[in-house]
Prior knowledge:
It is a single chain. This protein has helices spanning about 5-30, 50-55, 55-70, 70-90, 95-125, 130-135, 135-170. It is mainly alpha-helical. The protein has one domain (about 50-170).
Amino acid sequence: MKAQEPSQYYYLMKHTLLILLMIGGIFACQPKTSQTDQIDVEGHHAHSSEHVEGDPRAAEVMAIHDSIMPRMEDIMTLKARVQRVSNELDSLSAPSPALKKKKSTSDDLVKKLEEADQKMMGWMHQYNADTLNQLDEKAAADYIDQQKVKIVDVKRVMEQAILEAQDFLGERK
């Protein structure tokens, strides 16, 4: 029994840390306030944020992000469950070829779920709506177009990893 306690403790700590990182990621996506939004003496914005607020493409990029951000919890949960299956298969002394294949599949799924998590975190880290305030209209449009391509790819990777993990666990909704 004592041999199981450290692994349960490790799992709990790892899961708690992942949840805290997700919460931090959510807060990292909140709009930043800065001195660039101050109004000058004539009543104009010192550095206009009209590219961010007025560009429906920027809103679309954030809408895509906001639609998939809640799925990060699904990714963490599925990853833990698939990892548990993988660990159980590791503990078998003489697994059959079918179980070896299932073990390989579970390991691949864990990697895909980790990749999906990393893609989202990477996108959030590099995306900066404040950049739009410093660009002319064409450059801002190009930046948003590039960001849309990136976040659509993040969405695709996340959804695919989730579906594959749900299929593997027999839980596809």
